[in-house]
Amino acid sequence: MACIVKKLFFCGARSFRSSGCQQDEEEGRHHRLPHGHIWVCVGRDTSRRFNVDANFLNHPLFEDLLRLSEDEFGHSYDGALRIACDADLFLHLVDLLSSGDPAAHYMELADLVANSHAGSL
Fold it and tell me: Which N-terminal stretch is annotated as signal sequence (predicted)?
């Protein structure tokens, strides 16, 4: 995981040619990222691509999701980080982190899952 994060910061997310998401292959399009953002593909069988603030990578809840995803996807990537969880749960996390709610700093992954509408990883 640290190797992926280093490449994102040193080379930039724009250095990736493809995100590897099924959604992108079906739509056949690639969008430019705003400065300081990365692509994250979320889902197990079919994935959706999200544009995420790179600062979120340092948050413990985001790191927990990345650790859980290592078991499923390993450390390999093809243009985007891959997270093996429900897209609704991921969006709930992004909304929580974007809101600046201080409760996010004290929340465990199990609490996030319990509080989300998805209710599962």
Answer: none
**Would you kindly state where each structural domain of the chain is located, as residue ranges?**
2-27+36-115
- The answer, as to whether pTM is greater than 0.90, is no
- Residue 23: CB atoms within 10 A of its CB come to 16
User: What is the distance between the alpha carbons of residues 118 and 109, in angstroms, rounded to a whole number?
Assistant: 13
Comparing CA positions, the residue from 80, 17, 15, 76 lying closest to residue 52 is 80
Q: pLDDT (tens digit, 9 = 90+) per residue, 22-68?
A: 444 444 455 688 899 999 999 988 889 999 999 999 999 999 998 88
Q: Would you tell me how many other CB atoms lie within 10 Å of the CB of residue 116?
A: 20
The answer to whether the CB of 30 falls within 8 A of the CB of 15 is no
